[in-house]
Amino acid sequence: MFVIDPLFLSRTAEEVGGLNENKVELLSTVSAHDLQIEAMARLFQAELDTGGFGGHLYAESLIQVLFIA
Q: I need a labelling partner for 1 at 20 to 30 A (CA). Which of 18, 28, 34, 69 fits?
């Protein structure tokens, strides 16, 4: 499960996609299975578990990719 800070989501939408923050919407899906999001979640979890070389920057980049997926 991911908890997403609405402010971070709005900033990412504006920076990455040039979207107006008022036009960003999170859709709730229960029991959805998305292989791409699952792969990103595994990379993120591995980074959290190992404290890998990329550190904070790598984790933040994965979050941004997750937001735009």
A: 18
CB 42 within 8 A of CB 31: no
- Neighbouring residues of 69: CB distance < 8 A, sequence distance ≥ 6: 34, 36, 37, 40
Q: Map out the domains of the chain as residue ranges.
A: 6-68
CA distances from 39 to 13, 35, 42, 56 (A): 21, 6, 5, 19
The per-residue pLDDT for range 20-64, each reduced to its tens digit, is 767 777 777 777 788 888 888 888 888 888 876 667 788 888 877
Positive/negative CA dihedral, 50, 1, 16, 12: negative
**Does the predicted TM-score (pTM) go above 0.90?**
no
